[in-house]
Specification:
295 residues, 4-stranded antiparallel β-sheet, 1 helix
């Protein structure tokens, strides 16, 4: 959150992880847990922190970080941890060795929104200028078919079957064997950008900045406002936990809903859907939730 640190849920209690718990300041833009138990926290104000075993270490550009304001962190299956920045800086680190990647000629620097890995181990990078894949030692620009904006790709979500879903131009696009299909709800304007995508079991959930939560099933797109009016309307990120709950970053509140309840209510319209909302009353000192968190 902005100016209140990182919140940790332990059963139904919330613990604030801030200056008193090893985090050097309380402005947290994003966080990512890596498989070795390290928590990376990008503050946006003075660098990125690596927290392990209760000890926080500030990592700066002189250490290998691409820039001070990190906007995306991702750990690939080969152990490389990728860092993307607000002005397009891009580096990766493994076993203490850093590689600077934003100086490769095929890469056009602009804000990094999303980094993901497909089932073949290929890395995808979404920026304010488009979509790239990292092929061995070079970047390859991918076409972004968009009539809205300038090709900004805010979210990337690879599917187990090799499809790549990404957010661009007010809708969700699916790339399959270099063929792109656009998914948009019928009879709705595309003025709201897609900020988050979650793929599971042949379904695609996505959140928009202004018109709430949507679901793609097969070839159809449906708004979930009919399931519950409490969703959103600004869904900045979507995460699923091990118990089948969706956690929705609704910018000014944190929402939790059981995924199975949503799917049942779609086929049974009168079935109520319970949405748990977390805010000041639950111990959150600040409810301005920032863009990215994972794991």
């Amino acid at each position: 959150t902005t100016n209140a640190g990182v919140f940790r849920f332990a059963r139904t209690f919330i613990k604030i992880v801030g200056e008193g718990s090893g985090l050097p300041n309380e402005y947290a833009w994003l966080m990512h847990f890596t498989r070795d138990g390290t928590l990376w926290v990008g503050t946006g104000r003075g660098g990125t922190y690596r927290i392990k075993d209760g000890q926080a270490q500030l990592i700066l550009q002189k250490d290998g970080m691409p820039e001070a304001n990190i906007t995306e962190i991702f750990e690939a299956s080969d152990g490389w941890v990728w860092f993307g920045g607000y002005t397009g800086g891009l580096s990766r680190m493994r076993n203490g060795t850093w590689q600077r990647l934003d100086q490769l000629p095929e890469y056009r620097r602009s804000k990094v929104y999303s980094i993901a890995e497909d089932n073949s181990g290929r890395i995808w990078v979404g920026t304010n200028y488009g979509l790239y894949t990292f092929e061995g030692d070079r970047f390859v620009g991918r076409p972004v078919r968009s009539q809205v904006g300038e090709g900004t790709v805010r979210a990337i979500a690879p599917a187990p079957n090799g499809d790549i879903y990404y957010a661009a131009g007010g809708g969700v696009r699916r790339m399959r064997n270099d063929s792109v299909r656009v998914f948009r709800p019928k009879n709705e304007p595309t003025i709201y950008g897609v900020f988050s995508i979650l793929v599971d079991s042949g379904r695609v959930w996505y959140g928009t900045y202004g018109s709430g939560l949507y679901l793609i099933r097969g070839d159809s797109v449906m708004s979930l406002r009919g399931v519950s009016s409490m969703f959103g309307p600004r869904i900045i990120s979507i995460l699923e936990d091990r118990r089948g709950y969706l956690w929705l970053n609704a910018e000014r509140e944190l929402q939790r809903v059981r995924k199975a309840d949503i799917l049942y209510a779609i086929d049974h319209p009168r079935h109520p859907v319970r949405i748990d909302i977390y805010n000041h009353l639950d111990g959150l000192e600040n409810i301005e939730f920032n863009y990215s968190s994972s794991n």
